[in-house]
Structure formats: structure tokens, C-alpha cells
Q: What sequence folds into this?
């Protein structure tokens, strides 16, 4: 006990409580600084999440624009050259953008293999130039575009170099 008869421990506890309360305020002020320092440690997790979101499957609209864009992405993965404009130009000439177009009157049709789809590909050409990861249906817009561009790349260097029936 102290000389005046009071417990020194109580006084110390009161002082400790005051410091704790004051310290809490200081800690709150320091948190943004500490948080800023530790936020960089959290950045790799945030970057991983962003990367995962970026590599998630891309969705394309079910229309001519979406079909061309999806085909271009597949073509890029397989090293097949071509541009949006070159593909679009040829589609408009060959089928006017109708994925179910079929030519029943040219020499291919007379020989039993009519041209089909957006880029009017005959079945043997479609099968020979089919690109892995696309449908085996020649009327499938993405499969038709991608196979036709693969053929045009082999024969003409790119679909961009095709300006008439091919």
C-alpha cells in the first residue's frame, strides 16, 4: 500500500485505461497508414481475382458481329490471319449474313456438294479446314467462318485477300 493508504494498483489501472483509450484513438489514426502498407500485401490476391475474371469465358452476341468476333478470337488462338473487315466483306458478298444460306444452282450443287453457310463453304472444304474447338456443323456461323478463313489463309494468305468467289 502507499503512504496515504490507497492502493497504487488502482491508480495505475486508471492510468492504463486512459492510455488505452488515448492509444485507441492513435491506433485509429495510424490504421490508414498501416492499412496502406499492408494493402500492398493484399494486391497479389486482388490481381489474381482480376486475372481470373479476365480469363473467364467471353460471351459473344448471337448475331453477325458476335460470330465474327468469336471466330477472330479462335483464329488468333490457331494463328489464322484475317480481319473483321475482310471477313464481313466476304460474308456480305457470299450470303448477305444468312447463316443458313445454301447455293443449290452452281457447279458445286450440280456435283452434289452445295456451298453452305455464311461464307458458302462446301462440305469437303469445311471438313478439311475445320478448326478444333468449333462445331462440325457447316451451318454453325462460327465454325463456318473459322473454317473458311483457315481455307482462305492456306490458299490466299488471308480472307482479307479474297475479293470474289473463292
A:
Amino acid at each position: 500500500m502507499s503512504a496515504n493508504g490507497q492502493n497504487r494498483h488502482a491508480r495505475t489501472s486508471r492510468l492504463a485505461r486512459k492510455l488505452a483509450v488515448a492509444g485507441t484513438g492513435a491506433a485509429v489514426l495510424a490504421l490508414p497508414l498501416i492499412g496502406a502498407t499492408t494493402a500492398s500485401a493484399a494486391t497479389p490476391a486482388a490481381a489474381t481475382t482480376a486475372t481470373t475474371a479476365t480469363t473467364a469465358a467471353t460471351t459473344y452476341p448471337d448475331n453477325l458481329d458476335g460470330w465474327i468476333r468469336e471466330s477472330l478470337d479462335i483464329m488468333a488462338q490457331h494463328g489464322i490471319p484475317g480481319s473483321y473487315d475482310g471477313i464481313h466483306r466476304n460474308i456480305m458478298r457470299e450470303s448477305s449474313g444468312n447463316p443458313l444460306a445454301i447455293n443449290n444452282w452452281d457447279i458445286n450443287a450440280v456435283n452434289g456438294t452445295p456451298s453452305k453457310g455464311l461464307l458458302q463453304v462446301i462440305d469437303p472444304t469445311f471438313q478439311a479446314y475445320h478448326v478444333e474447338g468449333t462445331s462440325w456443323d457447316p451451318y454453325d456461323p462460327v465454325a463456318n467462318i473459322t473454317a473458311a478463313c483457315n481455307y482462305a489463309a492456306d490458299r490466299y494468305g488471308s480472307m482479307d485477300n479474297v475479293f470474289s468467289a473463292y
Observations:
- The chain has six helices and two strands.
